[in-house]
Structures are given as structure tokens and as C-alpha cells.
Design brief:
The complex is a heterodimer of chains A (383) and B (282).
Chain A lengths: L1 H40 L4 E8 L5 H11 L1 E8 L2 H9 L8 E5 L3 H6 L27 E2 L2 E2 L2 E13 L5 H4 L14 E4 L2 H11 L10 H12 L5 E5 L1 H10 L4 E6 H9 L4 E4 L5 E10 L6 H11 L2 H8 L11 H10 L1 H6 L10 H6 L2 E3 L8 H12 L3
Chain B lengths: L1 H35 L3 E3 L2 E3 L5 H7 L2 H34 L3 H12 L6 H12 L4 H6 L13 H25 L3 H9 L4 H12 L1 H16 L3 H5 L8 H10 L4 H26 L5
Antiparallel strand pairs in B: 1-2
Classes of the chains: A alpha/beta (383), B mainly alpha (282).
């Protein structure tokens, strides 16, 4: 017994020794691993640099992604495609991980070598409406360079207290004497001239031969006496809000939608002559230092959840190309889905695109950009 | 010998810093502007070249010359009106206020510079809008709505906001240098306030008046904020034209032509103004 006891004692001693040793070794090891794991979580977030229009890196859009991926999206905001190109060309390669661009500037980014080629398999194109699966300019043959994330329409924006919807249903309302000195232009030649090109009956508003371009210039000049001024985002926003401007050419719901939500009596409509579509997409900057995170962000913002966030973006709302995003939006915010025409049953915003009433905004096809812009500067002269 | 070397070193170190500053932030950027005005743009990117096309295109455009004339006329009108409006204020501060009140007035003139000029321009919109404060005050008196915002008048108000405090301050500094006994002597010789102003004060502060006028001209000639946010961008100034030109497919070379034309105008105006201010002085 004793021997047994002794053996048991020996065994116990060994067990005790092993367990004690294990504990001695394991506890610090475990605590070290916990410490290491904890410190990994507590590591400073990775900075992802984004070049975008205002609003795309605000907390209402990126907070969830940042907390999920322990990163901080740092934005450099621009105003307009030319400004975007200038900022990229003045920065060292690899400065921007994510680049948000208007569709018409993606080919320029690709030609200049500012963006990476993307793998289409990484993105949920099958969830998109067919019209957006191979968006013009985002692809060069079968090579993908940018993923569409949101879009909106440009038409007649108006003060609902002073301009009737019936009148606003045609671009001709800009010439109405009742609104002389109350009509504003968004100060960018592309949307305003594109819209008035539609009024002239040009089905492809930017593909004009010399005769049609000349005719467009002549007709736009007749609008000059009506014009109060040429405004940037802030000026347009303030003018519509104060009632100083009762009609604005060259914008759409991306400005009036924000004002309307704040209670202003304004709205936008696609007139009978047709409207334009602006389109935003994300690309990954050349030699991005955070390529994987940039890819994950594009995946997030084009997922159903990210698309709802994008549609409801505080800075300016937009329509979304992802069908599953529409479904989720109708569940979580049916009012906004209805307001923007992204309803699942009945007429919706896709109808205008499918019928050809909505044309994509693009760069002039038959003239150099300078010809259009020089005319725009000439047009500003007070008559 | 050592003392002489030290004096030379001190003199050059004192002159060297502003010279270096001028070289870095005026001469070199100006040279850069001049160089890129001969470059071309291909696919939105600046390309090395030596072409006169940018100069011939910009100087051959009616829009350039109408913007030039408009900018020049507006700057001139603002400089003269600001100088005129500032004169009674500067006179009162200099000669009719106690030392304490004068200090307070000078501080009040400096305070506007603490606020962003852009914010001040936006604030004017509230007053100048069709349904703004001024029209609201005039309406009960039977006036119909007066358009002030998005007009040349709006730009002018903005320009005055920008330069008036500075013009008054420079005029005050000039008037403070006048020997009070001169004014006293004029009054003793029966000169009235106006005669005293025009025959004693103004000739004594001619240089300050011209410098104040010149500052107003320079500030308004290159300003972008007022013609954009209070003038509505209608009838572009040269600053507006630069913005438009850069937007046009990154046409920095053409924008450089406009910028050089502006700098040349300002240099010529400054030289002429200085020559006039110190004419007859040794």
C-alpha cells in the first residue's frame, strides 16, 4: 500500500510537477498571446487614402467599414473631374488607394496610368441590373478598371412654390419671362450644355457635328438674358434654399434631394426632352499601398448593405445599381426608395434608362473639350 | 577691418532674407508660370513644348479682353470709392478721437481680418438677396425689390468689404504722421475744415493715400470670392477666367497666360502709383 502510496505519491508529484510546470509556462504564454492578440486589435488603424467628391468618406458612409477593418479612410475631396485629374497628377504614384470618379473621366484615368486593372470576379456584378454590368468607360475590352457604385439624373431643378411641375416638364421653362434673372447655371459646361443639346433634339447630346454644335451655341446664347449667375455647389445650394434661384440648369436630385429633406420647397424632374445620367465609380489607385483594403471597400460599398448607405448618403443622395441593394433599401427605408424611384413594383427609375429618355453624361465626342469650355466662358459675358 | 566685415555680413544677412523670400515665392513661381505658358496639354497632362499657341489663343479671344476690361474697371472703381469713403472715417479717427477711442477704433478695424473673407461674403448674401434684409427693410417704405445679389453691385460690396478696413488703417497711419501744429496753424489762419482737409491734410498724406489706393486695387484686381459669390459669376473677371480655363481639360498653360497678364498689369500699376506718390520727393 505504502509502495502504491509512494508510487501514487510519485505519480501525483509528477502530475503535480507537470501541471504546475504547464501552468507556469502556459499562463504567461497564454497571457502573452492574449496580450499580442489584444495589442493587434489595439494597433493604430491603417490609413486608406481616398480621393472623392465630398461626402464619400464621412462617418455616415465609412464608419462601419472602418470599425470592421480597423482602418481609417482619409479623404481628399475634389470638385469636378478636372480637379481630380490635377490632384492625381500633382501627387506621387501610390498616394491614393481609392479613387472615386465620374464615369466620363475613367478612360482618362486609365490612359494616364493612374488606376489599377481590377479582377471582375472580385465584385458582385451579377447582383447589378444588366445595364450596369459592363458600364461604358469602366471597361477596356474585357479589362475592368472601375466599379459603378451610384448614379443620378440631371434635369430641371425648380422651386415648387413658384414653378409648376407642368412648366418644369420642359427645358423651355428656362426661357420663361416670368423667371428672368431667377435662372441659375451649375458652373460646369458639361451638364448644362448636354441638357440644352437634348432640347435641340440631339439624341446623343455630346456627339454633335459642326452644324449641330453651332446650332447649340446659338440657342444657348438666347438664354443668357434669363441667367442670374453661374454657381458652384455652395452657390447653387444657397440660391435654391433662399429662393434667389427659382430654376437651375445642370443639376438634379443630388442637390435638390438634400434641400428637400431639409424642408426646402424644391424638386428636380426629368423633362420630356430627356435627362442626363451622372455616374460614380470606384477604382484602385496605381501602386496602392493598401490594395487589399481598397478592394474590400469597393466590395463593401457595392454590396447590398453598402449600397443602402450610399443611396442615403448625407452629402448627396443617389440611385444605386445593385438590385439586392434596392431590395434592402425598400426594407429599411421605403420612403427614400420611393422618393428616388427605386421601387420594386411598378414604374421605377430604370424605365427612363431603358426607354432612352436618359442619356449618359460624357465628354464631347467630335470637338475638343476646350471648344465647349471656351464657349461656356464666352456665354458668361453679360449681354 | 573686422568691424567692417561684420557690418557687411550683417547688412547682407538683413537684405538676404527678404531677397531669398522674393526669389523663392515671387521670382521662381513667376518664371515657372512663364515657362508653362509655352507648354502644351495632351490628354489632360502638361507636355513640354515651346508653342505660342496659348498666348495667341488667349490674347485673341474677346472673352479675355472683356474680362480684362471688366476686372480693371471694377478694381479701379473700388479703389477710388474705398479711398473716398475711407477718408472721413480716417480723418475722424485721427483728429477727433481721444487716444483711447482711437486705439479701440483701430482694433475694430483689424477685427474683420479675424474672420474668413469667404464667410463675410456669404454673410452679405443674407443682406443683398431679393428676399434679404435690405429689401425687407425697404419694402414697407414702398420700394419694389431691388436686385443686388449676383450683380456688379454685389461684387463691389464684396470688394469694399475686403479692402475698406485696410484702406482706412493706412490712411490713419498717414494722418497720424501729420504735425498737429500744421492743422492748428491752418485753423488759426481761418481755414475751415474742408480747406484744412484739402490744403493741409491731403497733400501731407499723398503717399499714404496712394499706397492705400494701390492696396485696394491689388486686392480687388485678383479677387475671386466676391465676383463668384456676390456677383454670381456672371460677367467673368480674370480670376473667374483662370478657373474656367483650368477646368477646360487642365489648360494650365492658358491659365498661366491670364495670370501673367494680371501680374504685368499689377506691376505696371504699382510702379505708376509709386512714381506718382513720391513725385517731387528726394
Amino acid at each position: 500500500m505504502k509502495k502504491i502510496d509512494t508510487n501514487e505519491t510519485d505519480v501525483f508529484t509528477r502530475r503535480k510537477f507537470l501541471s504546475t510546470t504547464t501552468a507556469v509556462v502556459a499562463v504567461p504564454a497564454l497571457s502573452t498571446s492574449i496580450f499580442i492578440g489584444g495589442s493587434a486589435r489595439a494597433q493604430a488603424p491603417v490609413t486608406v487614402n481616398m480621393l472623392a467628391w465630398y461626402g464619400h468618406a464621412e462617418p455616415d458612409v465609412v464608419a462601419e467599414f472602418e470599425s470592421q477593418h480597423n482602418c481609417k479612410i482619409k479623404a481628399k475631396y475634389y470638385t469636378g473631374g478636372d480637379n481630380m485629374l490635377a490632384l492625381i497628377s500633382q501627387s506621387p504614384v501610390g498616394t491614393y488607394d481609392l479613387i472615386l470618379s465620374d464615369a466620363e473621366f475613367v478612360p482618362q484615368l486609365q490612359k494616364a496610368g493612374y488606376i489599377e486593372k481590377l479582377n471582375p470576379a472580385d465584385y458582385a456584378f451579377d447582383d447589378f441590373f444588366p445595364e450596369f454590368q459592363k458600364f461604358p468607360g469602366h471597361w477596356q475590352g474585357n479589362d475592368l478598371y472601375s466599379v459603378i457604385t451610384r448614379f443620378g439624373f440631371l434635369g430641371v431643378s425648380y422651386n415648387t412654390e413658384t414653378v409648376s411641375e407642368k412648366k418644369a416638364r420642359s427645358y423651355r421653362v428656362f426661357w420663361d419671362q416670368e423667371y428672368k434673372g431667377k435662372v441659375g447655371h451649375f458652373d460646369w459646361y458639361l451638364p448644362s450644355m448636354g441638357q440644352l443639346s437634348l432640347l435641340n433634339g440631339n439624341k446623343s447630346p455630346y456627339d454633335l457635328n459642326a452644324a449641330n454644335f453651332s446650332k447649340l451655341k446659338t440657342s444657348i446664347k438666347t438664354l443668357r438674358p434669363q441667367i442670374a449667375g453661374y454657381f458652384d455647389y455652395g452657390g447653387t445650394f444657397g440660391g435654391l434654399k433662399s429662393g434667389q434661384l427659382q430654376l437651375v440648369c445642370g443639376i438634379g436630385d443630388w442637390i435638390t434631394g438634400v434641400l428637400k429633406k431639409a424642408g426646402a420647397k424644391v424638386d428636380s424632374i426629368v423633362p420630356e426632352e430627356g435627362g442626363l445620367q451622372w455616374t460614380e465609380s470606384f477604382s484602385i489607385g496605381k501602386s496602392s499601398k493598401n490594395h487589399e483594403l481598397a478592394k474590400k471597400f469597393i466590395q463593401y460599398i457595392t454590396s447590398a448593405k453598402g449600397q443602402v448607405v450610399s443611396a442615403r448618403m448625407g452629402a448627396y443622395p443617389a440611385m444605386i445599381p445593385n438590385k439586392k441593394g434596392w431590395e434592402l433599401l425598400n426594407t429599411v427605408d421605403s420612403v427614400e426608395a420611393k422618393r428616388q424611384g427605386m421601387v420594386l413594383k411598378g414604374a421605377n427609375c430604370m424605365d427612363g434608362i431603358r426607354s432612352g429618355k436618359i442619356r449618359f453624361r460624357e465628354l464631347p465626342l467630335q470637338q475638343p473639350i476646350e471648344d465647349w469650355n471656351d464657349f461656356w466662358s464666352d456665354y458668361k459675358k453679360r449681354v | 577691418m573686422n568691424i567692417n566685415i561684420n557690418k557687411v555680413a550683417l547688412r547682407w544677412s538683413l537684405i538676404g532674407a527678404p531677397l531669398l523670400w522674393q526669389l523663392m515665392f515671387f521670382a521662381l513661381p513667376l518664371l515657372f508660370l512663364l515657362v508653362i505658358s509655352f507648354c502644351s496639354v495632351q490628354n489632360f497632362q502638361l507636355a513640354a513644348d515651346f508653342t505660342f499657341k496659348n498666348w495667341s489663343t488667349m490674347l485673341g479671344r474677346d472673352t479675355f479682353w472683356s474680362a480684362y476690361n471688366y476686372t480693371w474697371a471694377l478694381a479701379l472703381a473700388t479703389a477710388f470709392s474705398a479711398s473716398l469713403f475711407a477718408l472721413p472715417a480716417a480723418y475722424s479717427i485721427s483728429f477727433h478721437m481721444s487716444q483711447r477711442m482711437r486705439t479701440i477704433a483701430i482694433i475694430l478695424l483689424v477685427i474683420p481680418f479675424f474672420t474668413s473673407y469667404l464667410v463675410r461674403a456669404y454673410a452679405w448674401q443674407i443682406f443683398l438677396a431679393d428676399n434679404g434684409v435690405i429689401n425687407a427693410l425697404l419694402s414697407p417704405l414702398g420700394f419694389s425689390t431691388i436686385s443686388m445679389l449676383n450683380t456688379t453691385f454685389g461684387s463691389w460690396v464684396g470688394y469694399l468689404t475686403l479692402c475698406m478696413p485696410l484702406v482706412i488703417l493706412i490712411q490713419v497711419m498717414g494722418m497720424m504722421q501729420i504735425d498737429p501744429s500744421l492743422i492748428q496753424a491752418a485753423r488759426n489762419l481761418s481755414a475751415g475744415p474742408f480747406r484744412c482737409l484739402f490744403e493741409v491734410v491731403i497733400p501731407s498724406i499723398k503717399a499714404s493715400l496712394v499706397v492705400a489706393w494701390l492696396f485696394a486695387f491689388i486686392l480687388t484686381f485678383g479677387d475671386f470670392v466676391s465676383p463668384t459669390y456676390l456677383g454670381g459669376g456672371a460677367s467673368p473677371t480674370l480670376s473667374n477666367l483662370i478657373i474656367d480655363t483650368v477646368k477646360s481639360g487642365q489648360q494650365w498653360p492658358r491659365a498661366a497666360v491670364v495670370a501673367i497678364a494680371m501680374i504685368a498689369t499689377l506691376v505696371a500699376t504699382s510702379l505708376a502709383a509709386m512714381a506718382y506718390a513720391y513725385k517731387g520727393k528726394k
